[in-house]
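Listing S7. Sequence submitted for prediction.
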Amino acid sequence: MNSITAQEWELLSFFEAEPEFLDPEVPWAYNDALYRVRVKQNIVSFAVQPAYRDVRLILSIDDLNVYELSAMGVADVRYRKESGIETIEILLHERNSVVLSLKPHVQIRQEWGGELNLG
C-alpha cells in the first residue's frame, strides 16, 4: 500500500502545529494524526492516516461546523508551496480535489475537472 505524497515535515510546516496522535507508539505513516489550528475565528481540524489514505477536514467558525469532509482511501494528499503560498491538496479522485490554504486567510476550494455524464 502506498502512502500519501505529503511528508510529515510538510504538514508540520503547513499547520505550524504538532499533531495529536491516536497512538503515540505508532509511527506517523501508520497512525492517525490530528492537526488543529486556529486562524482568527476559524478552527481547522485536519486528520490523516497516511498509509491508509484516510482524511477528515473540518472548518469551524465561531464553534459552528461549516464544512466537513470525511474521505477514505483518497488518491493522494499533496503539499504545495508556490509563490510563497502553502496549500494542502486532497486528491479525492484523479479529477476531483479539495484544496486547503491557511494564509493569508483560510480557504477551502473544491476543483472538478471531469466530464458530467447525465445519461
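Caption to Listing S7: primary sequence and predicted C-alpha cells for the chain studied. The two ends are 35 Å apart (CA to CA). The helical segments are 8-15.
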